[in-house]
């Protein structure tokens, strides 16, 4: 194991990650390689009255750590057992590793739309996969959790017999947003289909996936900029890594989202004065939760909590909770 203090060569690299707007500011970094190293790091923190925080990829950085940072990226072994259809992933493993090792066996994990996200961090937040409505939360599939205190050193979880999926995306110019939002909202959604709606500046993007066939014709309510839908290997639906960048974001879980409210949210996001991208995922199906929708906001800059809160004000009376995932650079 390597240990880094401020000023050491490698300290900056070790505390950096996908989020470039914020970095951890630890007194010491334990770059762990096994569970015994994690024990040592936790012991160091506890005996000195310091906080300890885990850093894997930095995708989910909320508040920068100031005490002990446990960097897990070297502790990233993944083992697949095709007989029992299980995977064991160490603390630093990312989904791409699991997908690559599982797919030759016709198996797949319940990973999300970015394959470079950490398996453990994602799963601890429930894990909304690209097939979430068909198969439930990633955390529903956990068989065994190995821990040192509150630090998960490895997870063992079920893989699913998934090879090909029906998946794709439609992109529209934002000038058609009202019609696209309406078509998305009125979709008589089969329980096996997992869709998302995302705004990205001038574009509204719809994505959808299932292991079973389904129809998206009714979503083509305006000319499409991208129209891609078909049968493909699960890995292709599992998202490509993005380059590191600066972003701030938060989310709410809702128990209803009437169309007029959705339109007000859309307008509030587009009138926020700063870029606010909106993400909407209908829940239900195999996701056993009282919430019917997950609404996410994300901006490519920091210091926009107030603008996000003003957009969330439009849905305040429907809020029943918040997902631990999809919270970025917020305390
Ligand atoms: C581009 C992008 C796409 C995403 N897509 C999805 C998606 O499709 N579905 C979804 O559900 N989520 C998604 N997320 C959210 C993601 O799952 C969370 O941000 C998650 O916390 C990232 O975990 P990490 O380990 O990669 O990040 P890190 O920033 O390294 O860790 C985040 C936090 O997770 C906890 N954590 C991580 N590892 C451990 C451990 N071993 N023991 C204890 N705690 C630990 C810690 O609290 C840590 O601070 C996405 C995020 C981004 C930025």
From TrEMBL:
UniProt keyword Oxidoreductase present: yes
Domain of life: Bacteria
Cofactor: FAD
Record-level Gene Ontology MF annotations: FAD binding; oxidoreductase activity
Keyword field: FAD, Flavoprotein, Oxidoreductase
Record domain FAD-binding PCMH-type: where: 22-213
TM region(s), chain numbering: none
Family membership: Belongs to the oxygen-dependent FAD-linked oxidoreductase family.
Full protein name: FAD-dependent oxidoreductase
UniProt source species: Lentzea alba
Lineage: Bacteria, Bacillati, Actinomycetota, Actinomycetes, Pseudonocardiales
């Amino acid at each position: 194991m390597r240990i880094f203090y401020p000023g050491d060569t490698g300290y900056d690299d070790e505390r950096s990650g996908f989020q470039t707007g914020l970095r951890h500011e630890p007194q010491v970094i334990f770059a762990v390689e096994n569970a015994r190293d994690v024990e040592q790091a936790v012991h160091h923190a506890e005996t000195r009255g310091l906080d300890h925080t885990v850093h894997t990829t930095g995708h989910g950085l909320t508040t920068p750590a100031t005490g002990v940072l446990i960097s897990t990226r070297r502790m990233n072994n993944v083992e697949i057992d095709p007989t029992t259809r299980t995977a064991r992933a160490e603390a630093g493993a990312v989904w791409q590793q699991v997908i690559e090792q599982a797919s030759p066996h016709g198996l797949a994990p319940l990973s999300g739309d970015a394959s470079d996200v950490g398996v453990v961090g994602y799963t601890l937040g429930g894990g909304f996969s690209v097939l979430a409505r068909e198969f439930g939360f990633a955390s529903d599939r956990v068989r065994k959790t190995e821990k040192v205190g509150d630090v998960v050193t490895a997870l063992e979880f079920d893989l699913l017999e998934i090879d090909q999926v029906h998946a794709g995306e439609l992109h529209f110019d934002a000038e058609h947003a009202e019609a696209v939002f309406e078509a998305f909202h009125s979709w008589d959604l089969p329980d096996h289909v997992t869709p998302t709606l995302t705004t990205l500046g001038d574009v509204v993007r719809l994505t959808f996936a299932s292991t079973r066939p389904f129809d998206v014709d009714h979503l083509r309510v305006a000319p499409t900029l991208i129209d891609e839908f078909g049968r493909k290997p699960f890995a292709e639906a599992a998202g490509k890594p993005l380059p590191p960048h600066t972003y701030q974001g938060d989310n709410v879980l809702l128990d209803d989202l009437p169309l007029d409210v959705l339109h007000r949210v859309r307008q509030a996001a587009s009138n926020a004065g700063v870029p606010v991208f909106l993400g909407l995922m209908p829940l239900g199906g195999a996701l056993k939760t009282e919430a019917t929708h997950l609404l996410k906001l994300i901006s490519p800059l920091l210091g926009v909590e107030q603008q996000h809160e003003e957009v969330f004000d439009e849905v305040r009376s429907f809020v029943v909770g918040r997902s631990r995932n999809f919270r970025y650079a917020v305390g």
